[in-house]
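Why should sequence recovery work at all? Because a backbone constrains its sequence more than one might expect. Tight turns favour small or flexible residues, buried strands favour hydrophobic ones, and helices have their own preferences. The token representation captures these environments compactly. In the example below, the structure is given first.
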């Protein structure tokens, strides 16, 4: 009987960019552009410096090591994973595959390995796709079970994604890829409590997951013996985390047919993925109101989203980790000031916003689809103004041109040189005839800005 890890191992080993649908390969390019572009845009955020300090304390500077992007120094591959994942996660505008942010895990890991190990650049896109497919397969089916129990999708499914990507980049055969996946299953985990408490652990989780996935692949290559029933066993991944049975045949049917990378979406605003629609709705409602004074506001959203850690928070707020998750805060700041930016998301004592937060009621309504919301505003002159915002992943599935506009718009706010985006876009466009040094050089353009700050 072929196990799920064997099916996945065989699938990943056989993946070939030359035989994939063109739209799948193109979407991987878009994910790269968004990942690197947002990394440039995050150069002022405070999380990468913390991760860099920790990486240097553990592994030290290594002249022949992996670059800490935007910093100028080099450290171990694992240290670079920690530092660069924290950088890419700095604005919370990374890509989203369901509830998981695989780009912040996979792209820094693959970049570090390519820089140090000099693997053929031709492997980059197919390795990236391998990660999205392995992690996304599980996230789509089981996140509805794991997220409500307090497990973070990025970390629960991210280790599997990272092990698949690393195995593909390392050119492991099917047997060793299977072992890498099984290893990653044993190393999976990660909680959502930091969102409830408004703290920063989630910024660093993704880098730890990247290191874990790479470690899983290296252990497999070295000859580790790994559980064949890692996914579907009695004490395996699915029953342990999702608390349900694992339908191996149903999952296998999705491979190569329901491409996970095509589900990846992007964030126009520096807020949680689940808050992109409420902000969009808030902008529409603000236009309808035209400055009319508000009395109370009711927000209806799907219970899966309202039940996510931190989404119902009403303050007091003291960190952006709290504000970007809070549906009431995101809607309040949008209704008061318009499009939210990092300045608004990090202003915690604004009297107008905090007053409105206290007059917003969040209602869980199963009749409202996910990625949608209804905002009902009672005005001081006795009217009720309503904004129905029905959206799907298609509304956030930007193409390469759309992502370019997005990252460059933010780059203007964050003083990122246009030349840095030019180099990243040229790198993505030239693949597989490109060099990872082009990426390192692009991030070198923001290093003086960080050091001057």
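From this structural description, the recovered sequence reads:
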């Amino acid at each position: 009987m072929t196990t799920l890890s064997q099916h996945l191992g065989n699938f990943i080993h056989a993946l070939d960019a030359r035989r994939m649908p063109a739209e799948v390969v193109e979407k991987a390019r878009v994910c790269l552009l968004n990942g690197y572009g947002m990394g440039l845009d995050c150069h002022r955020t405070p999380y990468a410096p913390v991760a860099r300090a920790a990486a240097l304390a553990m592994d030290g500077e290594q002249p022949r090591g992996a670059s800490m992007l935007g910093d100028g120094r080099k450290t171990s591959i694992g240290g670079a994973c920690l530092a660069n994942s924290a950088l890419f996660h700095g604005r919370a505008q990374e890509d989203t595959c369901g509830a998981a942010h695989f780009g912040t895990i996979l792209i820094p890991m693959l970049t570090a390995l390519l820089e140090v190990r000099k693997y053929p650049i031709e492997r980059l896109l197919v390795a990236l796709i391998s990660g999205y497919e392995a992690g996304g397969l599980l996230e789509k089916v089981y996140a509805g079970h794991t997220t409500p129990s307090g497990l973070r999708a990025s970390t629960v499914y991210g280790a599997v994604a990272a092990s698949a990507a690393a195995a593909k980049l390392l050119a492991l055969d099917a047997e060793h890829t299977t072992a890498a996946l099984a290893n990653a299953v044993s190393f999976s985990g990660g909680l959502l409590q930091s969102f409830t408490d408004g703290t920063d652990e989630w910024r660093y989780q993704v880098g730890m997951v990247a290191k874990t996935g790479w470690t899983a692949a290296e252990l497999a290559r070295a000859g580790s013996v790994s559980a064949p029933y890692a996914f579907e066993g009695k004490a395996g991944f699915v029953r342990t985390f999702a608390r349900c049975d694992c339908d191996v045949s149903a999952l296998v049917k999705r491979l190569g047919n329901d491409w996970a990378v095509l589900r990846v979406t992007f964030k126009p605003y520096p807020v949680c993925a689940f808050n992109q629609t409420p902000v969009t709705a808030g902008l529409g409602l603000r236009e309808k109101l035209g400055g009319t004074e508000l009395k109370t506001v009711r927000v209806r959203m799907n219970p899966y989203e309202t039940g996510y850690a931190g989404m119902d928070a009403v303050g007091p707020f003291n960190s952006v980790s709290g504000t970007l998750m809070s549906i009431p805060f995101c809607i309040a700041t949008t209704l008061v000031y318009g499009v939210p930016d990092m300045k608004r998301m990090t202003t915690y004592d604004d009297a107008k916003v905090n007053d409105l937060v206290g007059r917003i009621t969040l209602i869980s309504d199963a009749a409202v689809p996910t990625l949608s919301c209804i905002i009902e505003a009672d005005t001081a002159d006795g009217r009720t103004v309503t904004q129905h915002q029905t959206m799907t992943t298609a509304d956030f599935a930007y193409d390469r041109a759309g992502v370019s506009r997005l990252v460059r718009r933010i780059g203007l706010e964050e003083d990122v040189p246009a030349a840095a985006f030019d180099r990243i876009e040229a790198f993505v466009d030239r693949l597989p005839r490109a060099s990872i040094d082009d990426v390192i050089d692009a991030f070198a353009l923001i290093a003086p800005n960080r050091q001057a700050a």
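A few observations help interpret the result. Residues 449-453 have pLDDT under 50 and may be disordered.
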